[in-house]
Amino acid sequence: MLEIKYVRQNLSEVYNSLKKRGDMSALDAFQGIEAVRREILGELEDLRHQRNVVSGDIADLKRKGEDAEGLVVQMRDVSGRIKVLEKNLTEHEEKISEILIRLPNIPHASVPVGKNETDNPVVRRVGEPTSFDFEPKAHWTLGEDLKILDFERAAKIAGARFPLYFGAGARMERALINFMLELHTTEHGYTEVLPPFIVNRKTMTGTGQLPKFAEDLFKLENWDYFLIPTAEVPVTNIFQDEILDEDRLPIYFVAYTPCFRSEAGSYGKDTRGLIRQHQFNKVELVKFVTPETSYDELERLLNNAETVLQKLGLPYRVVSLCTGDLGFSAAKTYDIEVWMPAQNTYREISSCSNFEGFQARRAGIRFRRKGKKGTEPVHTLNGSGLAVGRTLAAILENYQQADGTVIIPEALRPYMGGQEIILPRP
RNA sequence: GGAGAGAUGGCCGAGUAGGUCUAAGGCGCUCGCCUGCUAAGCGAGUAUGUGGGGAAACUUGCAUCCAGGGUUCGAAUCCCUGUCUCUCCGCCA
Fold it and tell me: Fewer beta carbons under 10 A from the terminal one: N or C of chain A?
């Protein structure tokens, strides 16, 4: 959410910077409604002041045993008027917050201008695309042949876009989670968190999933609860409505959670394999930092996520999302894309964003500077470190051998009891 | 699921026959004084949001005692609804 004062005072700038990001009709209405709101508020506060003063007078008169009936009658009218204005004010406030809560974040000045993902510039490439002297197979073929992935039976149990792992597949998924958590906690200074996987409406609104993107979420029937689409949601909301002392910042959290997404509107996309699932595992990095450090922190967070790929020996590239491809809440985002040999392309495996104060204002996460009055929103950041299912898919494809077996990356072996290779399950 | 108790400022905690609550008191914290260090002591300050004035220190209006509604000239206080917490019972991994 943008700050109401900022929108009021910089309407044309807000308009311009958000124009590329979609429907601006709501913003057109803002100015008029906000002017009326402020007018009502002015009159209302005057009347409330009058009521406060006169009520005190009435109390004095009664204490002295004098007659106060005249003032009481007078205040009856004032109170009536206050009630009308209050209702009116509430209506205008609701309209304003309805507009503000649906307004996306303003892109940072360093974000490249562009229309869609084809305009995202590549920041760097690390590692060469894996070369094979045979035709590399897709991870779903490898997984099914090795009998460590079974999409057919998963569909029977749940439906399309659900995973079912067996044997070394299940073990590698678990090993990846542990490997990533260990790396980020012991080498990168993050504190491990295990949050709820189901959250309420306020929490979903705090990070920006609601109200605009309800169709992307799984909602529990008869409950105002939602399955989390990412650990970002519960973890960022840990400090919801809190004021942190400056010296507590920065705060780094890493959390493993399953993630649940409806994938509405992606019918026909990535229908095979682990790339696009209704349920997948992810290790997420979340930071709470002071505004002046947040862009340095973004670079470090990105590096922390890249380290996972480097240690696993997977080729990847980093792209900077352009204005047209930026998510609703983000001010700046880097995507990390891993090389997928069978598809002969890079696929997103991590998304690292700085939200600046956008989520913090929605969720009420503030901090107090030492020796200064007042509070400021913290800056929040997060990034996948990494999407686990996609990492497993990338390992299968990049580490496959001509005979269909898969070498286990060395960094992962300690988490798999020393196992070095995945052979077909009998 | 049944019965009961509760929710007040950073923390503890007073405050229910509605009216100096413009929220006592304590702790903590900040600044200053004092003591050669430390401790103790003394003094002052110490919530959030939003609007006005001021270069600023500051000053001033309104709102906020879990949330939402109601009664009233006036609500932390009375009424209704909801949320959460705690205790006991039942059930349960």
Answer: C
| Segment A140-159, tens digit of pLDDT | 999 999 999 999 999 999 99
Report the amino acid identity of residue A303. Answer: N
Alpha-carbon distance A75 to A71, whole Å? 6
pLDDT recorded at residue A220: 86
> Rounded to the nearest 5 degrees, what angle is found at the Cα of A289, between the Cα atoms of A285 and A291?
130
Cα angle A287, A244, A182 (rounded to 5 degrees) comes to 35
- In the block, which residue shows the tokens 């780094």? A252
A347 strand-pairing partners = A338
- ipTM tops the 0.90 cut: no
Closest by CA position to A355, among listed A112, A2, A14, A20:
A2
Asked if A285 contacts A301 with a C-beta cutoff of 8 angstroms, the reply is: yes
Contacts of A234 (CB under 8 A, 6+ apart): A195, A196, A197, A199, A203, A228, A255, A257
Is this structure's pTM higher than 0.90?
A: yes
Stated in angstroms, how far is A370 CA from B39 C1'? 26
Q: Is the CB of A78 under 7 A from strand B?
A: yes
C-beta separation of A338 from A394 below 8 A: yes
Establish whether A351 is a catalytic residue.
Answer: yes
Burial A271-306 (b: 16+ CB within 10 A, else e): eebbbbbbbbbbbbbbbbbeeeebbebbebbbebbb
Nucleotide nearest to A80 (CA to C1'): B73
